[in-house]
Amino acid sequence: MRTWVILLLTLVLILVIKVDGQRRKPRPTVVRPPKRPTRPPPEPVEPTDLPPPLPPGPPSVFPDCPRECFCPPDFPSTIYCDSRNLRKVPNLPSRARYVYLQNNFIEDLPEDAFKNATEVQWINLDNNRIKKVDKKILEKMENLTYLYMEKNQLKEVPPYLPQRLEQLRLSRNQISKIPAGVFNKMDNLILLDLHHNKLSDNVFNKNTFKGLKNLIQLNLAHNILRKMPPTVPETVNQLFLDRNNIEEIPTNYFKDLPNLAFLRLNYNQLSEKGLSKNIFNISSLLVLQLAHNQFATVPSISPQLEHLYMNDNIIEKINGTEICPLPFAPADFLSSENTFVPHLRYLRLDGNQLKPPIPLDVIMCFRLLQSVII
Ligand SMILES: *[C@@H]1O[C@H](CO)[C@@H](O)[C@H](O)[C@H]1NC(C)=O
Ligand SMILES: *[C@@H]1O[C@H](CO)[C@@H](O)[C@H](O)[C@H]1NC(C)=O
Ligand SMILES: *[C@@H]1O[C@H](CO)[C@@H](O)[C@H](O)[C@H]1NC(C)=O
Ligand SMILES: *[C@@H]1O[C@H](CO)[C@@H](O)[C@H](O)[C@H]1NC(C)=O
C-alpha cells in the first residue's frame, strides 16, 4: 500500500497544470530537398504597390546564371531567385534542378517560363501572385518531384500534374475546384497540402483522390467542409481536417484507413450527436486532436493512442472507468509489464468545465501518462 501511495504521489507531481506551447506537430515522413546555404530569407510584407526589382548581383561564375539570381558555385544545379521582387520567372539554364522563386511578385507562368529547365526537380514558388498554371508548363517537367506554390492566388488545382510528383503544397490559395481526374495517375504523391483554401463538400466525390496510391499526408484543414471527404486513400497516415465545419462522421469511416496514425479535427462542430460511439477507437491511431469542438464526454479510444487533445470542449466530468480502453485490473497495478497498459502519455483537458484534481480512476487507468493539462 505504501508503494502505491508513493507511486501516485509521483504521478500527481508530474501532472502539469496549464502548460502552454506543448502542441506537437506530426512531421511528414518525407525526404526534404537540400536546404539553401546561408542567405537569410527576408519575410516579405504584402505591399500595396509593387516595389522595383532589386538590382542584379555580382556576375556569377556561371555565364548562363540569370542576373536576377544567385547560382552558388558549389551547387550548379541550384538557382536562387527568391526575394528579388521579380515579376516573371527568369530565363533558367537547363542544368537547373532546384529552383527557388519564393517571395516574389510573379503573376503568371507563361508557357515558355521554364522553357530550358525541363529537368527541374524542385520548384519553390511560395508567396507569389500566381493565378493560374498553364497545363502545358507542367506537362514538360517530367522530373518534377516537389512543387511548392503556397500563398498564391490559385483558384483551382493545376489541371495537369507531372507523374513523378511527390509533394504538392498548395495551401493558402483560393482553391475551390479540383479538376476531375487530376490525381488519377499520381502514384508517387506522398504529400498533398491544400489547407487554407475554399474547398467545399461538393468539390469531392468518390474518385477525387483515386490514383493516389502512396499518399501519406492529406491536409484539408481550414476549408469550408461540412462533411468528411467521401474517400481518402487507404495509405494515408496523417489526415488533417482542422478548422472546417464538420458535424458528423459516417460510422466505419476510419475502417478503410488502416494506416491512420495522426488525426486532427480541431475547430469543427463535432459532438457526440453526429458520431457512433466507437468512431475514434482506431487501433492504428497515435495522436487524436479534437480540441475546440462540442464534446461533452471523452470519446472511446484505443489502448494504442498516445496523445489526446480534448481541450476547449464542454466536458463537465470524466469517468476513468468508462474511458479506460482496457479493463482495469488492480492486481497488475505495480507490475512493471506495460504490455496491457493503455499507451496514453499526453492528455489535454483544459478549457472544459473540469477542475483539478484529475480523478484517481483516470490516473489508475492510464499509467503511462506523463502530463495531463486540466
Ligand atoms: C535556352 O535554349 C536555347 C536553345 O537551345 C538557347 O539558345 C538559349 O540560350 C537557352 N537559354 C538559356 C538561358 O540557357
Ligand atoms: C528526367 O527524366 C528523364 C525521363 O524520364 C530521365 O531520362 C532523366 O534521367 C531524368 N533526369 C534526372 C536528372 O533525373
Ligand atoms: C474498441 O475496439 C475494439 C476492437 O477493435 C474492441 O474490442 C473494444 O471493445 C472497443 N472499445 C470500446 C470502449 O468499445
Ligand atoms: C463511472 O462509470 C462506471 C461504469 O459506468 C460506474 O459504475 C461508476 O459509478 C462511475 N463513476 C462515477 C464516479 O460516476
From TrEMBL:
Main location: secreted
Molecular-function GO terms, alphabetical: heparin binding
SUPFAM superfamilies noted in UniProt: L domain-like
Pfam families, sorted: LRR_8 (PF13855), LRRNT (PF01462)
Annotated Gene Ontology cellular component terms: extracellular exosome
Span of the signal peptide: 1-21
Keyword Glycoprotein: yes
Compartments where found: Secreted, Extracellular space, Extracellular matrix
Record key words, sorted: Disulfide bond, Extracellular matrix, Glycoprotein, Leucine-rich repeat, Proteoglycan, Repeat, Secreted, Signal
Domain (LRRNT): residue spans on this chain: 64-98
Keyword Oxidoreductase applies: no
Residue spans of biased composition, Pro residues class: 39-58
Protein name (Swiss-Prot/TrEMBL): LRRNT domain-containing protein
Organism expressing this protein natively: Eleutherodactylus coqui (Puerto Rican coqui)
